[in-house]
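I had to read the description of the data format several times before I understood it. In essence, backbone conformation is discretised, so a fold becomes a row of integers matching the chain in length. I therefore recommend that a typical entry be quoted early in the introduction. For illustration, here is how one protein appears when written out as sequence plus structure tokens.

***
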Amino acid sequence: LSLGLLSRWYGSLRLTKTQTAIAKVYGVRAEILGSWLHHLSVIRNICAHHSRLWNRDFAVVPQLPTSKNNPTMPEFVTSSRKVYNTLVILLYLMDQVSPQHLWRSRLLALLSSHTHFLTAMNFPQDWINRSIWNKSE
């Protein structure tokens, strides 16, 4: 099952109970998860076709959680069309699916060697102090 097919499959579920049950596993609302899956399928296609990702303005942007009670909300940069929010989504989902993953440390190592690109990717000044980037693996 490809990511694009998964996104379309999830979006075509008319039973909101089913979407809600799936999204609950990931700790977000059904429409948020649907938006994330659609956005990530677009990101996957950009990467698969060797297109520029790091300073791109995305046409398909993920919907962000609106509740301040949602633990992911403070991590996002609102009104951003850049890759920072995508990386936060990926980290959040990786934490849900595989809490002991090593992707965070690998991503941090990559980012630390390319700090001059962080502004173009819309990283906020305090990004490294945000909890999503500091979880232990």
Remarks:
- The helical segments are 3-12, 16-25, 30-48, 84-97, 103-112.
- The chain has a mean pLDDT of 91.
- The radius of gyration is 15 Å.
- The first helix runs from residue 3 to 12.
